[in-house]
Amino acid sequence: MTDSNILQLSLELTLQEGQDGLFIVSANVAGETRKIDADMLVSYLFYSDEPTMYGMLVEQRDNWLDVSIDMLLRLFSAGSHPYVQYTGATSDDQQVLTDIREAATLWKDPALFSYVEANESGLSFDLDKTHLSEQAGRYISLAMRGQLATLGVSMADFPALLPHFKQYGWPNTETSKLPFRVALRLTEPDVDETDWLLETILISDRGAQWSPAAGKIAGSIENALPAKRKPYAEDIEERQAEMVGIFRSVEWYEPRQFMHVPLNDAQVRIFIQEDLPLCQAFDYPVILPAWLKNVTETKLKIRTSAGMQSYRSSASLDQVLSFDWQFSLAGEKIDRNQFQKMVDENREYIRAGDEWFHLDPAWLKRIRELMEQVDDGEWTVKDLLFNEVPEEIAPVYDEEEEDDPLVAFSMQQSLRKVMNMLHDKKGLPPVPVPKTLHAELRPYQQEGFEWLHFMRDNKFGAVLADDMGLGKTVQLITYLLYVHNLPETDSPSLIICPTSVMGNWQKELERFAPSLTVHVHYGTNRAREEQFADMMSKRQAHIILTTYGTATQDGEMLSMYEFANVTIDEAQNIKNLQTKQSRAIRKLRGGHHIALTGTPIENRLSELWAIFDFIHKGYLGSFRKFSEEFIVPIERDDLEAEKRKLRARIQPFMMRRTKNDPELRLNLPEKLEQNEYVPLTPEQAALYESFVSETKFKLETLTGFERKGLILKMLSRLKQLCNHPALFLKEPPAPAAELTTRSNKMARIVSMAAEIAANGEQCLIFTQYIGMGQMIRQCLSELHGIDVPFLTGSMPKGQRDALVEAFQNGEFPIFILSLKAGGTGLNLTQANHVLHAGRWWNPAVENQATDRAYRIGQTKFVHVHKFVTVGTIEEKIDEMLVEKAALSADLIHSSQWLTELNDRELEDLLTFN
Predict the structure, then answer these.
(1) Entry's Gene3D superfamilies (predicted)?
(2) Which residue, among 213, 211, 202, has the nearest Cα to 180 in the 3D structure?
(3) What are 134-173's pLDDT values in tens digits?
(4) Is 434 a member of any domain?
(5) What residues have CB less than 8 Å from 430, skipping those under 6 apart?
């Protein structure tokens, strides 16, 4: 078939601009009103986009996508899908699309930066030179800021780097024209010397490092090179100039020679602190002395012992500490005067025997100031526990983890007892449960309530991160009852939650705390400016309950007030720190901030930073500093030391208990999980093998990320086929008898659900595909006369709440839920069977869905059925999930683990056995 015989698909795009150049994009086929599926739109828009793994990393919500402006410019500058045409759904959409296309033309222009000017805000465009419309120029500016942020270049640094960008453009890692890499190498001084050496070297594909002979250093690059590399002299000179052009540590070098310049200690510090991060951002390879990284991590060799000057109360945070300081270097003791001399001489790198030690002058000065401060009696237990103290005097709870003999911090027994008490959150001052609470707290819930009170009393925010189903809601309600019984409380508390669980909050507040007056701030008729101000001044409510969407829309108004408490439920909703929603929530003011979440870290440490920026602003420092200190070394390098350090930093603010904790004594009923294996029908098997063969044929023409990207996009299609061929073929509705004949999985799910209902039991059916849920619903109705509701993300809140309540009241036996809409926030303990129609990439998503039934309040045996088609990707994913299960217990849990598989493993995943 030739290209001329292939029909063009015309899509009408709807583009709604949000904050900071983030667009909400949806599409419908020209002439039709129904929106196309988000996964189909992704496959069209991102079919060749490697940076997003061909759309795998794009956030999808129902039938629309979150797409940044820099993504849009990249997509339209690269050219559209060969068989898809795009127009705007309305005249406004068409104008936006026109401006984006206009901006995209300049975006791919090599002379892009010649139109950029540096100013106080970072950058601006000369529209007269570019002949861009004002809107297209704004899009370019927003996209450039987004790209710079991705590189880790701040707007404050941009003016100094603008000449570099004008000459070389965006960092380009494409070096295929060279059979080696051009790199920089820093070498420490020889014995009795003080100068370091920074030089340009070449690294072969096998990792061998080459530098010019000593006698040829002063000559040109071409003369210094061996014969076989002389043809690349000009390319090496250009790449070297590009790398050195960003440096602040190198004042001058001869550009026609291999760089070979001496650096003193101060220049080395500038290189490490300022130049090296830029090299990493621009992907310029740098070789450092192996010891330098380790020494930089340990920093200082100090031993200190801390104790309390008095011992009044086991939980007092205001007790003053006394410190006993000792110093050592390479195992040799140093007295305080010698330490003082190092500070005064501004020394940075010291050799002791065969070892090198880095002594950061600024850091040493801070330590000296800290010593003077604590010796004057100004430091308390509170300072030690919560302040951002240097790592070397941070509390250590497992001394066996400290494997650096040159750094030691010890605590006297009485202080250690207090610190362990606060670390474990046991034995805190008892707080009477309010008599107005209509519930009996379990022992661990009493501890959670007392901890929330303790954190408020000491003016620290809190993250209550108990496992789903352990009763975070009742602990928070108990706390709010206590707060609003205090005479000094003169303003309402604010609770922000997803729309899907707002009805649940209303019911729980009414059930457990009927004495609290609740005002629901939601909907088109909600209180506005003066009306809201009047309600606040007259104290007409104890609790104001609202949603994330409403709080974002009314963010400016809500930020004008200080609430007694601000609580965010399912706090992962503010994880994307650059979104308007996250910023609006983090600007709210309360006497105490609490975050509730069962998943404090879903995928990225940036999410953790956003939550902590809400509960205790500034504690984890700026996001840039947090990224340098934790995100890069943990997410990129997987460094255990940084993980331990971060756990120690966040642990005092976070209470985390799980259902598997034997100390909780939950007395939950047993849960059995088992796979239900079903074969493909002949039709499915033929389609499966044909589709895999077609995919492998396409793969033969692709390499690298394009090949992996195509395989990843195919996985979703194969999963649809495993469910039902009609889902895979996008067929119109058919009779139920025909539907069950064409899919053994469909037949088994429908028959099992009907049998459960016939036995007087109730079940939940989870599916990730709307079409699958609709077919199951149709089959149950036509074949068994059972009318089954289907909860999806588009269902209005009132209808959703009514269905949940009806199911809990036993009004219908089977409830179908989409995995995204029903996976969190719902209490469906009347179900004692959970059916998963397909396997999801992330086991945590399935577990959250299962926990709608298997949670506190469940009194029945819970049977979880996971449907798996034999010999397909479902069975292979199931096997992989067993192997990957340990990941969820780590500090970071990534739902993108499939992208880490190599090509062989991914191809094996496609093969039908």
Answers:
(1) P-loop containing nucleotide triphosphate hydrolases (3.40.50.300), Tandem AAA-ATPase domain (3.40.50.10810)
(2) 202
(3) 888 888 888 888 878 777 777 777 777 777 887 777 776 5
(4) no
(5) 450
| Residue 508 phi, psi dihedral angles, 5° rounding | -70, -40
Looking at the fold, whether 790 and 822 belong to one and the same domain comes out as yes
Tracing tokens 């661990």 back to the chain, one arrives at 444
Nearest 5°: the CA angle 699, 703, 705 is 105
How many domains would you assign to the chain? 5
d(C-alpha 590, C-alpha 394), whole Å: 29
Secondary structure of residue 291 in the 3-state scheme: helix
* CA atoms of 446 and 596, how far apart (whole Å): 16
Q: Which domain holds residue 511?
A: 443-664
**Burial code of 683-706, b = ≥16 C-beta within 10 A, e = fewer?**
ebbebbeebbeebeeebeeeeeee
Are 570 and 824 within 8 A, CB to CB? yes
727 and 774 Cβ atoms separated by less than 8 Å: no
3-state secondary structure string, 98-148? HHHHHHHHHHCCCCHHHHEECCCCCCEECHHHHCCCHHHHHHHHHHHHHHH
Summarize pLDDT for 572-603 with one digit per residue, the tens. Answer: 888 887 789 988 999 999 999 999 987 655 45
Token pair recorded at residue 639? 């460094």
Residue 73 located in a structural domain = yes
Q: Which two tokens stand for residue 845?
A: 């998503």
Name the amino acid, one letter, at 852. Answer: R
Mark whether 639 and 681 lie in a shared domain. Answer: no
- For residue 402, the Cα-to-chain-centroid distance in whole angstroms is 28
Quick: pLDDT tens for 597-607. 876 554 578 88
Do residues 88 and 15 make contact, with C-beta atoms less than 8 angstroms apart? yes
Residue 376 sits in the same domain as residue 482: no
In this prediction the pTM is 0.47
